[in-house]
């Protein structure tokens, strides 16, 4: 909040770094089928704000988002672990903003020999299987499946600000954080998410319907 740098420029630097990391993953032979990013447009941001119960811009976490697709579901957990070691620290993931209805964590620990050895050192897992399911997105199809999480992604700003070497800059540091959404999914689930009621144009239609009902209700109350 104290540097004269547009948010778009900060997102540009985060995007460049993440894309470079993905290219290195592919060059190293990592089994990554697809990797692509997108920016939320101004109109999409406004629509989402109108559709959400929270009405402040800070609640829009996916202004910059990336989707990573692997071939098999059993490759999802290793990919997330790899990202948390090489791209961002795991503790930079925003609490309460992760959703998962693909991977059953407790089951994954039991089935993998390496993870099963580590499970005794983890905090107590939730006992009921239903509790690992996220709150359903009201605009998504009933069988839409995804793993996504929001990361406080660090971006260097000293090269973006003239005369950066000041006492204030020294106290504040050289990095700021931008919110980035990561989506991780297997190929078969990605295909299923584009069919039937899960199709993106139907998602947007359901979202617009909520917005229209709220706007019309608000206009009637003023008449």
Could you name the key traits of this structure?
single chain; 223 residues; alpha+beta; five-stranded mixed β-sheet; 8 helices
List the helices and strands and how they pair.
Blueprint: H1 7-27, E1 34-39, H2 42-51, E2 64-70, H3 76-86, E3 99-100, H4 105-111, H5 113-118, E4 147-156, H6 167-172, E5 175-186, H7 187-192, H8 200-222
Parallel strand pairs: 2-5
Antiparallel strand pairs: 1-2, 3-4, 4-5
Helix pairs in contact: 2-8
As a percent range, the share of strand residues is 15-25%
**Termini distance?**
41 Å
Secondary-structure-derived class: alpha+beta
Widest sheet, order of strands: 1-2-5-4-3
Gross morphology: globular
Average pLDDT? 78
Low-confidence stretches: 127-134
**Helix and strand pattern:** HEHEHEHHEHEHH
Number of E strands: 5
Number of helices: 8
Radius of gyration: 20 Å
Q: Biggest β-sheet, characterized?
A: 5 strands, mixed
Helical percent range?
40-55%
